Amino acid sequence: MISKRRLQVEETPDNQDRWLVSYADFITLLFAFFVVMYALSSVNDGKYRVLSNSLVSAFKSTSSSAISFQSAELSSIVEQPSQHVERTAAPPALNEQQNTRIKRQEKMKGMAKDILLALAPLVQDGKVRVTQNALGITVEINASVLFSPGKAQLAESSSISLSAVAQVVKDHNHEIHVEGHTDNIPIQTLTFPSNWELSTARASSVIRLFIENGVATHRMTAIGYADNKPVETNTTIEGRKRNRRVAVMILSKEPEKITEIPVSLGSSDNFEVIE
After folding, report:
1. CA-CA distance, 179 to 219, in Å (whole number)?
2. d(CA 136, CA 134)
3. pLDDT single digits (tens) 256-267
4. Phi–psi pair at 26, nearest 5 degrees
5. Which residue, 161, 143, 141, 164, is CA-closest to 214?
6. DSSP tag of 198
7. How far apart are CA 259 and CA 256, in angstroms?
8. How confident is the model at residue 67 (pLDDT cuts 50, 70, 90)?
9. In angstroms, rounded to a whole number, what is the distance separating the alpha carbons of residues 225 and 244?
10. CA gap 84, 97 in Å, rounded
């Protein structure tokens, strides 16, 4: 009887369903892998914490080495966006240039306001216009305020207005261009053979007054345009009156780099930039 029972135990076949346990573990790990891959598309700190807690809870029965491996992988994933931000951040030099440009613009606005206040009575009478653009500030003064007809000597009454402008700009380092303009009526005298000489002489008279009021000589340039840049028509008295003017331009742009072009320029030659 005992021998028959032993025979039955020995002849009992092995359990063929044990592979299901390993298969279930494999499927679970595979599911976790795809969850991690899905999380790669948009990872942030909040998602990382939720995902990490979920994985720890789901794999408590697994080995600690597997969990540490997954945590290390997730840590590397989370660090990638921050590295990308560092690469795309604006360089410090660019930020410094932007700050410098903003300060320069604010400085020019303050200067324009000071000039406007100094010339307020003339601005209200329409004899002076103050404008600002990307090139800088332009103070347009009607010639009747500064000169007698056909003359380039400043009137005594104009010295006060121009001196006020000089006091505003003398402590700055911007370049100043003084432009003389006339109408299209020809002039022919011993002193001024044409409107070219008259417009240039008037611009030079304004510069001399600026120098007397402390503006550095190297900052200024006198330019005569005669009647070549009218702002109104010359067919009317009012238009010609507007065209007879002196424009004081306070430049805001930085000096451009000078590029020297070689005498023999080939396709492979490089320009030499002189700073």
Report:
1. 14
2. 6
3. 556 666 666 555
4. -65, -45
5. 164
6. H
7. 9
8. very low
9. 11
10. 23
Nearest Cα to 240, choosing from 188, 203, 186? 186
Calpha distance 98→184 (Å, rounded): 44
Residue 103 near residue 123, CB atoms below 8 Å:
no
Nearest to 136 by CA among 95, 167, 106, 108: 108
Euclidean distance between CA atoms 60 and 50, whole angstroms = 16
Q: Which tokens go with 121? A: 């009575």
Closest CA to 74 of 29, 40, 41: 40
CB contact set of 150 (below 8 Å; sequence gap of 6+) = 187, 189, 192, 198
Tell me: the pLDDT tens digits for 27-66?
888 778 777 777 666 556 666 666 667 666 665 655 444 4
Distance of CA 238 to the CA centre of its chain: 41
The 10 Å Cβ neighbour count of residue 119 is 22
Phi, psi (deg, nearest 5) at residue 260: -90, 120
Structure tokens at 110: 């303050």
Walk me through the domains of the chain, giving residue ranges and CATH numbers: 2-88 (no CATH), 101-251 (3.30.1330.60)
3-state secondary structure of 224: strand
